[in-house]
Amino acid sequence: MKTLLIAVIAVFLLPVVASAQFTISGSVSENTKHTSLPGASISLKNTSIGVSSDTNGAYQLKNVKAGKYVLTVSFVGYETQHKTIEVKGDQQIYFNLEPSAYLADEVIVMATRATEKSGTTYKNVSKTDIEANNFGQDLPFIINNTPGVVVTSDAGTGVGYTGIRIRGSDATRVNVTVNGIPLNDSESQGSFWVNMPDFASSVESIQIQRGVGTSTNGAGAFGGSLNIQTSAPGLEPYAEVNSTYGSFNTLKNTVKIGTGLIDNKFSFDGRLSRIQSDGYVDRGASLLKSYFLSGAYHGKTDLLRINVFSGSEKTYQSWNGVPEAKLRGDVQGINDYIERNGITGADATNLLTADNRKYNSFLYKDQNDNYWQDHYQVLYAKQFNDKFSFNGALHYTYGRGYYEEFKAGQKFADYGLENPMINGAPVLTTDLVRRRWLNNNFYGATYSFNYKASSQLNFTVGGAYNQYRGKHYGQINWSQISSNLNNSAHYYDGDGNKNDFNIYAKVAYSPVEKLNLFADLQYRRLNYDITGNDNDLLPLNIHDKLNFFNPKLGASYFINPKSNLYASFSIANKEGNRDDYVNANAGTVPHPERLYNVEAGYRIKDAQYSAGVNVYGMFYKDQLVVTGKLSDVGASIRQNVPNSSRIGVEFDGSYTLSRHFLINANAALSRNKIKDFSEFIYNYDTKKEDTYNYTNTNISFSPDAVVFGELVYKPFTSFAIALQSKYVSTQYMDNTKNEGRKLNGYWVNNVRLGYDFSFKGVKNMNVGLLVNNIFDKKYESNGYTYGSYSGGNRVTENFYFPQAGTNLLLSLNVKF
């Protein structure tokens, strides 16, 4: 590893030979009416040089060195053009684009995406960026280098169960849509990327909206939104094979095929993937499989696409984390933990002898999580004329699976079972293996109509109606001592049904050329019913009906074609998740959360650089947070806190130093506070909860600083080396800002290399290498804590999720 590091540093220190630099300028217009095309993308292929055309369709590419290039121009709804040029001096090159012979796939996501005119803070991630960072890790790790994002992995490697936070908000507050269709689970409200392995290989682009963003479908966005568009078809037939191998026996195999456009009307694309990894953590193994199939009819004014994709996962559970004493190698603390928690036998031996950072408390050989999820999408878009268009989708998702676990010393009564009699005496407990199942169906429709009344006025009306039907049940598939329940019977059955309706209207108006005003009004109604029995056998009979109004107003002002100012104000409302309802005390339901979001920023873009800076304020009413409070049956519950806030500033920029060097950087600095917070700690001496009050304390898992930098070196057009560096400051695991219950800040550095070449019969071959954590930093990116009082002393239990040290992934991608 040292040799690799020295080699990388040596390459960065190679001298760059200075040479003359020139400017390529011109304009982009459409061929039939000869009108200019503002916002067209102009770039030099295999370089970092690119720019968008201004309001008059004009462009300039500066600091271009002498040599041969392919100049590419693209614009939605028009055929992409390529021109091979030789630069010997300043040049003027003009483009007249032909309308596409078919409607472009980008129209599928236009209704829910933000633009420079919508006054929203966002980041676009292109297919090129996704491919460069896709080594088989889950999608959160592929977008880890975007502003304000923090990711974590239970197994420590980015494969298996992974998590993402944006601006400190967890996955339950990040709205995710795929082609405008909600992905978040309707009850838990999280997005589980482990159920969609290698999905990034079928993604065309991602827009990350921070804050409330624009109106979308699904649960409200309280930290951000991920708006995902699946792959558009290639114009020509293709085949692609991608393999990755790396540390911890991580192996990814992907095969992709596509027909290209058949008779300029039809296309078919497919992908088959398999990922496996032993994981960094002991027994943190994953076996993931998926496929993606898509067929489409492309008309000049309409588009019909059918997507079918599926994923299955078998993941050994590593979600308990590592106790703090074990992580620190504190032998006395480990023995105290063993005694305090009554740990005996093999479990105690495992705790004492396992690697401190790789410890996994589970030893049962089938302690697995198993889940299968199938997605069906029918997407249709119609351009009626140059002013009026429609976009709609029907969708169905079928999920089913279970996690299996060994449980020692379980009471028969806790499973509703009779105590068996042995030698005339009742037996009260047994060791057993149980499975807890989730079987769900999610289906509905989304739609949007767009009317462009004039170049100054644009209307969009859209919405969705979705239904969720979930079944929760448990089985005992082995018991050391048998009772009156067979293996196929259910010891509990619960249902969760949710109907979710929303409608929104958006208008963009430009009263003068440089000013754009934006309004976005959404109404959302949902009915949520939870019935049956919970896994503790208690009856459930919860019914809630909620109506939300979510208005958004914004403005953007273009100082010149290269830069603009924007500002927006939004209100969002969101219901609690299933646990908030189930764990609440009898007869109560959690109040919905409300967020007031203010965003303001400045963007600038030139041929050589692009940058954006924004300030934001997120002011919550009744935010749900963990307080340590227990329900009347002893379950942990989240409580509404009246006032909390996130206030911050974010920067995102890119600068081309020369033909060989490029710098990317972003930073998110924030202050995340709860005005008045009450912590509840159970006291075993008094059998009551003790209350401790705090003022102006930090929101948990909300770092004050997230900073990223990347230096890219391209000694020649087909080879690139990137040194990536990311810093995440201290995070507290509860809302008390206690130094004894925190995640230390960490600074992690990665190196990524990519080399492209081709030869007869092969369009492109790419060899990639990703070396993570090159300085072998020992850090933990996630954890949890709880406490109690006993014997007059507070007992705090902290658990952490260590991430892997230096590890690498080597990939080979071949395109035919």
Tags for this entry?
Immunoglobulin-like, 7 helices, 6% helix, mainly beta, five-stranded mixed β-sheet, 816 residues, disordered N terminus
Description:
This protein has 816 residues and is mostly beta strands. It folds into two domains: 21-98, Carboxypeptidase-like, regulatory domain (Immunoglobulin-like); 238-321 and 360-815, TonB-dependent receptor, beta-barrel domain (Maltoporin, Chain A, Beta Barrel), CATH 2.40.170. 6% of the residues lie in helices and 59% in strands. The protein contains seven helices and 45 strands. A hairpin with a 4-residue loop joins strand 22 (368-383) and strand 23. The protein starts with a helix and ends with a strand.
- The radius of gyration over CA amounts to 28 Å
Poorly predicted spans: 1-19
Shape: globular
Alpha-carbon distance between the two ends: 33 Å
What is the makeup of the main sheet? 22 strands, antiparallel, barrel
CATH H-tier superfamily of the largest domain: TonB-dependent receptor, beta-barrel domain
DSSP strand content: over 45%
Fold-level CATH name of the largest domain:
Maltoporin, Chain A
**The CATH C-level class name of the largest domain:** Mainly Beta
Query: Helix count, per DSSP?
Result: 7
Q: Mind telling me which CATH architecture of the largest domain this is?
A: Beta Barrel
β-strand number: 45
Helix share of residues? under 10%
The mean pLDDT is: 90
List the domain count as a whole number: 2
